[in-house]
Amino acid sequence: MKYYPTMGLEIHAELLTKSKLFCSCSAEFGGEPNSRCCPGCSGFPGMLPSLNQKAMEYIIKAGFIMGCSISRFTKWERKHYFYPDLPGAYQISQLERPVCVGGNVAIYVPSGEKSIRINRIHLEEDAGKLIHDISPNFSLADYNRGSIPLIEIVTEPDFHSAEEVMAFVDKIRRMLQYAGVCDGKMEQGSLRCDVNISIAPEGSEKLGTRTEIKNLNSIRSIGRAIEAEINRQTDLIVSGGKVVQQTLRFNDTVGETVAMRSKENAHDYRYMPDPDIPPLILTESELERIFLEIPEMPEKRMERYKSYGISESDAEIIISDKLISDFFDESINYYNNPKAVAAFILVELMRRINLGDADINGLPFGAKEFAKLIELGYTDKISRSHMKDVLREMLKSGKNPETICEEQGFIIKEDINTVNTVIDKIISENAGVVEQYRSGEQKVFGFLMGKANNELKGIAAPPVIKAHLEKKLNGE
Ligand SMILES: [Zn+2]
Description:
Elements: E1 3-14, H1 53-65, E2 69-70, E3 73-74, E4 77-80, E5 90-93, E6 100-101, E7 104-109, E8 112-125, E9 129-131, E10 140-142, E11 149-155, H2 162-179, E12 191-201, E13 211-216, H3 219-238, E14 246-251, E15 256-262, E16 272-273, E17 280-281, H4 284-292, H5 298-307, H6 312-319, H7 322-334, H8 338-355, H9 367-378, H10 387-397, H11 401-408, H12 416-429, H13 431-438, H14 445-455, H15 462-473
Parallel strand pairs: 13-14
Antiparallel strand pairs: 1-11, 1-12, 2-6, 3-17, 4-5, 4-16, 6-8, 7-8, 8-11, 9-10, 12-13, 14-15
Helix pairs in contact: 2-3, 5-6, 6-8, 7-8, 7-9, 12-14, 12-15, 14-15
């Protein structure tokens, strides 16, 4: 019998606010452990939380871009559980009235386009972090992450393959990044994914018992964890066993899912309304203002890039990283030749980034200097073959491209006397080929042009050399 997997997701995304959800502590990643905490976010009793307005704006933006309806009335609950990463023993979250309800996001998989339904998106605070690997005798708690605003995106069980889940998470990551809502850095935990997964005989209406794999933090491990869990459940059922509803974690090194605890249900958390945070009523004018602030989304950018004549696959690579896409947009403001800029980014800049010579987060030059370099090459001020050398030097020294070209002698001098002398020499040294050309064999021109280009690098631009060579060959 064949088994068919069904999956639903809970994606946790940390919001890019400067401060935490209910206090003014910094929400930046990292920092000396427990240096970004106050009595409020470390669970002291008697503190009065005050809701971060920016976090509200960000979750509303997330809702808009995923096609959700935004609740005009929203409120907060306490979700109780006792665990050392949660000093107050409850997390402020939303149960009954989440900010966003419903929604749809389309993904593209080899079998075509598919629409994934969003159930809800709610706002809650993150927990702290426990460090277990310093000593076998104790664990350490770092509450810097505690109370950082988090949105939880809950989907309907619309996924039937690891591929679909991976495409969706990647798309959500990118959308949140472009909307400026979350940095999408899965390796730092700012975007994490829980997968609910069950299998059932093909054709069966009823879903099987589900398990939940917690905290997957790379697209690759999401794919591997799903495959491993489908195999585990299938083997279990085939050998006469039963799947037990439980929470699992994925051990990336051995590629297996491991049980963490039996799965809680909502009533285990003793949800109750938070008495300190009044419900929030959102007005139409506020929602409209937030809607209008949403920047250009990746799909729109794709259309714009294609209208520049950039191929879909090239545009896809540029758009896959918002920082690169922003850098591209800024560069074409300085030198309006999108195809040339795209080509140079894809071939040279991305190569440097992949080699580890460059970091798009901290380039030692701006888009203006980068655009200038491309302009120098494409207006024949320097040979295009020198562009990559100049880029390497810019990355090393941070000097501007014109200075580097001067220093290295890359500026084409347009020395016409030398051009004529060199062409004369080539013509006399290659009398046989010249004879062929003059008797109508046009294709040997490339051979002569290649020789001239080689000897005249830095002395004149290829179009100038070509014009002079043609003139001489045709006896003008
Ligand atoms: Zn605090």
